[in-house]
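To assess whether the prediction recovers the assembly geometry, we first specified each molecular entity separately, as shown.
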Amino acid sequence: MRLLTLKLTQFKNYTSQGLQLAPRINCFVGKNGMGKTNLLDAIYYLCMCKSQQSLSDAHLTLHGEAFFRLEGHFYKNQKRYRIVAKVQARKRKVIECNDVAYPKLIDHIGLLPVVMIVPDDTRLATEGSEDRRRFLNNTLSQLDPRYLRDLVQYNRLLKQRNAALKQMGAERRFDAALLATYDEQLLAPATYLHQQRAAFQTQLVPALQAHYAAISGGQEQVSCTYRSALSESNLADLLVAAREKDRILQRTTVGIHRDDLLFQIGEYPLKKYASQGQLKSFVLALKLAQYAILRGEKKESPLLLLDDIFDKLDPSRVRQLIELLIEQEFGQVFITDTDEHRLASILNQFTVDYRKFRVAQGQIIDAAPDEKAQ
Amino acid sequence: MNFSSKLIEEAVSAFASLPGIGKKTALRLVLHLMSQEREITDQFAEALTQMRHNIKTCQRCHNLSDDVLCNICRDPRREPHTLCVVEGVRDIMAIEETAQYRGTYHILGGVISPIEGIGTADLNIDSLIQRIAEDQIKEIIMAISPTIEGDTTIFFLSKKLADQEVKISTIARGVSFGGELEYADELTLGRSIVARVPYRAKGE
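The predicted structure of the complete assembly is given in tokenized form:
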């Protein structure tokens, strides 16, 4: 699968810009704040119907304008897909595939698998469990339409249940029958989501270990455990047991919305014991494992978006990574960097075609033709 | 818009306050009334005032009505022991259009949605439970939107009615009549297969 052309209109700092992309490696180079990451985010948006940076659509529109539009021509299994995103203030956003608008955006997720690696990924290791659940959801939603549907349903019911608990608290009464109704409805989606997450973790561990060893060259063993209250007991019993607590706290205190992934290095928690370098390698290995699993399940290579990887890795590690990408038959890759010569000098060590785009102030000022290895 | 008359301006903004009517349509309606006999406008206004002042809610089913009981509840030919539970008045009109239902109705006044501030106490649930005993209801048909909130409402009601001697069903959900299978979305089609309808039992 690959992206042939991309067109941005009033997206972030781009007024209007079209790009012809190379089949393997595309480099966006330029100074900070020029709009390199915005190009990656535009590609991500066309695959996932939202920004990778969890920005609202209003913040994605060029300042002072009322709408933005993205268009991408994708090629997959000998078929062309023309994906258009039209996003207007105060209107429903529209995603079209070959001129037909999706009735529901979730129908689009999974058609064009994508993995984006950003410097911010270290949050996965250092921040709260929400980032790790988002990682689980992001991967599984691309693999399984039912997962995403059940997730949407679960979240909606959870929101209603929490609102009901708040309302009961405010009115100083308690409606056990209504809570029992929500508990019953939560059961089916929660059980499915839990099963899928647990199955994913068993796939993730070997992939994570293999990539970590390849990137760090280190001897230390890394691992990842899926922690969920549902692994111990069934949700119906858990909700009944937590009911008094829920009533007092006025929110649902147990369920798959509290799940977590625990990362370890050696025998110890990653967050406390890993060095900065180990942390960065771990998170990168995690994202590459995500890529490998998506590729294995989807039977095609997802788009790989690498934002500012030199922030994560020193040049020798980047060289290793590029080598890994080229050797492993990765699909189309998009890389941003502030120093065009640094990236070019690494890429020139390999026999691989790549195209370099110079980015300045929301414009591609120069798209060099495919450069070959010397 | 510039109006030569304050009176016209007020009439236009009154029309424009209605859902689906913009300023230009409102002006067209006002000018239309202007072009007609004065009595027609009087009748028009009178109809609205009468409606607003004299409309009642049916004491039994909460339908809109001119009397204490609505014309469906008063109709002796309706099957009194079958009850169709709906969200609102428009649902009754839609079901009546089908001419397929001869029982009576009960309007809930919405579905349970605490996010929008609609709790169980805001719906006509107590009167429904009361009616089951009073009217000796044998079957309840839930004709409620197939949404998450609609499902919550059906689940909740069937819990509340668990110890009553009453049959509960919901309207069928799935592929629409006259629709083609290949165009049905997978969720709908999946539901249709799970809730399939027996056509011929084996050996018959």
